[in-house]
Amino acid sequence: MASVQEDFVRRAHDAIPGGSLGTYFPADGQEFVIARGEGARVFDTAGKEYIDYVLGSGPMVLGHAHPAVVAAVTAQLQRGSSFYALNEPAVLLAEKLRESVPCAEQVKFCSSGSEACFFALRIARAATRRNKILKFEGAYHGHFDATLMGTWPGKLPNETYPAATPDSAGIPQNVRGDVLVAPFNDLERTAEIVKAHKDDLAAIIVEPQSRLVDPKPGFLEGLRRLAHEAGVILVFDEVVMGFRVARGGAQELYGVIPDIACFGKVLGGGYPLAAVAASRPLMQLCNPRHKGQADYAYMSGTLNGNAVAAAAGLATLTELEKPGAYERLRAIGERMRSGLRQAASRAGVAAQVLGVGPMANIYFTATPITDYRTAETQDAARSRALGRELLKRGFLTHLVTKIYLSLAHSDADIDRTVGTVEELLKADLR
Ligand SMILES: Cc1ncc(COP(=O)(O)O)c(C=O)c1O
Fold it and tell me: 0.85 exceeded by the pTM?
């Protein structure tokens, strides 16, 4: 007879394509349904415990069901959750964003990181009255048509820069013409593309550390300069890095200030909330009182600034402001990264370990990773096998993207994980 969990998995496959809520799914035979999360652990409906390095794809930087977040959400729930009109937690959260983030004179909320990037590019187009955007190969900025290009163009992309390859079916052919793709960390090539398209180019959008690949010294500064010279808006996608690598995000960490920044994940404390932040003149373009003006950029949504999500975000950011929080996040990330490096070296396996702050990942390649194409030299089969074996042993990872760490992970959690990785690498798994 099927167990309760097996029955749930079967029903999930019936009701939901692939039995997956997004793109994450464990290998066949390893599927599970999460019953609850607490701190750095999740528990499935069969009672199995996992150390969780997925963290809801990043928002749960305090760990699951953090008491301060639970208390804030519970209190707000009793006062109502969604109003569309102004609510107190949303105003307080907007102020906190402004206090924390250098480029944020004003902010406007939306519900997901994808929406934040989408609206940022709309504002950039409205401000410049140009259409094109430039993104970097391998960079993910969410699910909308204009940026779902050149994210995973395959091992040997046929297209040459700046041609954009759609990552999904269903993207209109004509959107391609407005998207330029450049190699991350190649300022010279990017400058050529910007120069060739400067009359049509509205924005350069970049994740400052692109999917864990470090920006080379001077790269972000170079983009800042290029954008400025060409009258192009520089957008930092801080959906992952915002409030995670520093209170002021990547712009504080690298000391380069964009025109617009996009936030999500940590900002919503595990609830659907994201934001666009920029200078007052740029943000005024989406002031609804300007509806009807030629440069008015529409930005609205039913759940924007949802009071429960804002309360969760506010509680999360308040916890992160406590002394030592960011030091701890950095220290735990460094412990994981150096542990993984040692594990690979002791096992005699060529690997690159990347990441900043509380993020890490291991790529099985001897080639230093500086962009999408060098990342593609990795032995992805080995990475998948490692993820499968870790899951069997109670470590939930999504090695296709990254390992996320939280304030709830202990040094002992990291050491146990790294020890298991070493054993598995020595066993030469496939
Ligand atoms: C860098 C980056 N930008 C944008 C997004 C999209 O955010 P969301 O999934 O909330 O739409 C993601 C999601 O993982 C991301 O990693």
Answer: yes
